[in-house]
From TrEMBL:
Highest taxon listed in the record's lineage: Bacteria
Source organism of the structure: Marinoscillum furvescens DSM 4134
Designated name of the protein: Lon N-terminal domain-containing protein
Any one Pfam family match given in the protein's UniProt record, by short name: LON_substr_bdg
Record-linked Gene3D superfamilies: LON domain-like (2.30.130.40)
Every Lon N-terminal domain range: 4-180
Length: 209
């Protein structure tokens, strides 16, 4: 499905279902948000993490949290669907902001329950290891997108995830990342401990032969 929408590029990746708070201060984006509010339409956030405009996420405005006297706004948005930009027009029509036709992509909802359980176990282990379990509560049905920006993925890795057409493929990608990350953090912590002990007198239990 092809749709023409306003476009608001960001150096970030927004995922479907993710809620994102934005502070709107540039004149062109104040115009964009006001237009969307007036017409009750969505806009797109192309992810400019690889210095090109290609893939992004359509978002809806949930709420205007605050309006400032100079026209600035704090808004709450939620990601809807992934798209591929067909033609990035800047400016778009007679507006200050960019826009253009995008292809809304179909994502196969083929996630597996066993992979979801594995994902939640690894997330729980990571946040417990980081002493963040009280800040981030993980359950068996925790959405991947609730914690996706908190598990140490690089922006370009998040971009790879965004482009995937299969939820199961995304599950495998994130699980593999966590299975590599947690042991690496543990090795780094052991190395730090050895560095702290370097030069100190050490007590070793005698070996029995």
């Amino acid at each position: 499905m092809v749709k023409e929408i306003p476009l608001f590029p960001l150096n970030s990746v927004v995922f479907p279902g993710e809620e994102l708070n934005l502070h709107i201060f540039e004149p062109r984006y104040k115009e964009l948000v006001n237009d969307c509010l007036q017409t009750k339409t969505t806009f797109g956030i192309p992810s400019y993490v690889l210095t090109k405009i290609e893939y992004g996420t359509e978002v809806e405005i949930l709420d205007v949290s605050k309006r400032y006297d100079d026209g600035r706004m704090d808004i709450k948005t939620r990601g809807l669907r992934v798209f591929k930009v067909q033609d990035f027009q800047n400016p778009w029509q007679n507006k200050q902001y960019a826009g253009g036709p995008v292809e809304l992509l179909e994502v196969e909802q083929d996630q597996e329950e066993s992979l979801q359980l594995k994902f939640s176990e690894l997330c729980r282990a990571l946040f417990e290891w980081l002493h963040m379990e009280e800040e981030i509560t993980i359950s068996e049905d925790t959405s991947m997108y609730k914690v996706i920006h908190k598990i140490g993925l690089k922006p370009e890795e998040e971009y790879i995830l965004l482009k995937m057409r299969s939820e199961r493929q995304r599950q495998h990608f994130v699980i593999e990342h966590l299975e590599q990350l947690i042991p690496a953090l543990e090795r780094a912590e052991r190395a730090k401990e050895k560095i702290r002990l370097n030069g100190h007198f050490k007590h070793f239990d005698p070996l029995k032969f």
